[in-house]
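agent> Task received from the user: take the single chain below, predict its 3D structure, and emit structure tokens. No templates, no multimer pairing.
agent> Plan: (1) validate residues, (2) run structure prediction, (3) serialize to tokens, (4) report one or two observations.
agent> Step 1 OK, no nonstandard residues flagged.
tool_call: predict_structure(input=
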Amino acid sequence: MAQKQIPNLILLDMMLPKVPGLEVLRALKQEGTTKDIPVIILTGLSERNADRLLQEGAISYVEKSDTLLEKDGAALIQAVTRVIGNAAGSKS
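)
tool_result: status=success, residues=92
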């Protein structure tokens, strides 16, 4: 789908029902039409995986937790705002 309708940003959960999120991330970053799409990872896995995911091409990492929900998703909103702000700044 990302190849047909190029999104400005992808929020990618690592725990997908059919294909592991890491495989999706790798496929996105290897494909010419999708390699430059910023990907923010959403995961319930611990933060110790963040470095690996960033090395694989993710632009940011947000840990899903009760804390994230209690704070109205502030960490996710911050990550999305930062990515959108960076993209807008690079176009001017």
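agent> Step 4: summary for the user.
The chain has one domain: 10-91.
agent> Done.
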